[in-house]
């Protein structure tokens, strides 16, 4: 079971932006725009489904889901579009955090309450918008801790092991995750293998393609530990390793999401994807909509930070932990 925990403003280390003073209460039908980067990725599909489920439970709430892909220009144009449609509230997962000030200012000027999901955004002064998602550093620490446990259990040494860390390098959420993983792994072992960073666009295809050159340049390496910003990055690298002839027994891949790693487990395959941190996009979507509707209908202030719980799953327990593998 994944739960969402609301935190006070001090949790983020920064004050949060004030929503429009007259945001609630409202009666009648509400329309909330849910603008998502990479809306075709399973995690974000789950998030949208969670938002819709919360809306259905609350009643008389319409969710307008928009897939922004990775296009910041589209994000701004779609934001302008939903503002022109006079939606009651906006939840956004930005393709690029650099557009945060523009997004926040546009919503503020229109008098429409805004909540960020997954990736924190801030205005020009550095003040963060209310946020629903995960603590990137803590997530990474759990991934790194599990990788270290499996590494020690396997009896590997730094001399014959490399760590591949694959992530979108200009995304704060990603750097927090992989830095947390590296720190946690280093704290748990006496011999830290060399870490090789791979910049990706957070897709499995790009991670697989980018890993090829690293694998070729390290042809003499026997064992590989893999982590990344998300399941796409980690499974992409694991696929590249296995395609190059590295046996699953010589790969410790720890994903982040569980929605792709579970596919090998569901199929009963021998795989380098040994574990993953289960994150529920659905719960994040539900939390965002519940908070937004609470503001609009009751005048309850948006929580500055809502953090979802996470847990490590593997081939033995993923089903009982509630991972939905499609």
UniProtKB/TrEMBL annotation:
InterPro entries: AraF, Bact_Solute-Bind_Prot2, Peripla_BP_I, SBP_2_dom. Residues 32-297 form the Periplasmic binding protein domain. It is found in: Cell envelope. GO terms for biological process: L-arabinose transmembrane transport. GO terms for cellular component: outer membrane-bounded periplasmic space. It holds the Pfam family Peripla_BP_4. GO terms for molecular function: carbohydrate binding. PANTHER family: ABC TRANSPORTER PERIPLASMIC-BINDING PROTEIN YPHF (PTHR30036:SF7), D-XYLOSE-BINDING PERIPLASMIC PROTEIN (PTHR30036). Belongs to the bacterial solute-binding protein 2 family. This is Sugar ABC transporter substrate-binding protein. It comes from Cryobacterium lactosi. The lineage of its organism: Bacteria, Bacillati, Actinomycetota, Actinomycetes, Micrococcales.
């Amino acid at each position: 079971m994944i739960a969402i925990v609301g935190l006070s403003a001090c949790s983020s280390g920064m004050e949060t932006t004030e929503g429009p003073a007259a945001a609630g209460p409202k009666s009648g039908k509400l329309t909330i725009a849910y603008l998502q980067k990479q809306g075709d990725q399973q995690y974000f599909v789950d998030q949208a489904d969670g938002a819709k489920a919360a809306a259905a439970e609350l009643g008389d709430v319409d969710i307008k889901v928009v897939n922004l892909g990775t296009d910041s220009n589209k994000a701004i144009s779609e934001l302008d579009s939903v503002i022109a449609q006079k939606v009651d509230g906006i939840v956004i997962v930005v393709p690029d955090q650099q557009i945060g000030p523009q997004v926040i200012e546009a919503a503020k000027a229109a008098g429409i309450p805004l909540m960020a999901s997954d990736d924190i955004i801030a205005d020009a002064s550095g003040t963060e918008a209310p946020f629903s998602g995960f603590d990137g550093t803590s997530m990474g620490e759990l991934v790194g801790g599990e990788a270290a446990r499996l590494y020690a259990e396997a009896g590997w040494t730094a001399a014959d092991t490399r760590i591949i860390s694959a992530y979108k390098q200009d995304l704060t959420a990603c750097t927090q995750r992989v830095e947390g993983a590296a720190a946690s792994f280093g704290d748990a072992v006496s011999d830290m293998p060399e870490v090789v960073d791979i910049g990706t666009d957070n897709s499995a295809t790009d991670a697989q393609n980018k890993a090829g050159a690293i694998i070729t340049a390290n042809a003499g390496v026997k064992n590989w530990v893999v982590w990344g910003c998300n399941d796409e990055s980690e499974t992409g690298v694991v696929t590249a390793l296995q395609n190059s002839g590295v046996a699953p027994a010589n790969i410790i891949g720890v994903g982040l999401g569980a929605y792709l790693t579970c596919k090998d487990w569901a199929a009963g395959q021998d795989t380098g994807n040994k574990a993953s941190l289960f994150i529920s996009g659905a719960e994040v979507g539900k939390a965002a909509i519940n908070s937004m509707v609470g503001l609009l209908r009751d005048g309850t202030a948006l929580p500055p930070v809502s953090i979802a719980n996470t847990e490590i799953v593997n081939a033995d327990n993923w089903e009982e932990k509630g991972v939905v593998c499609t």
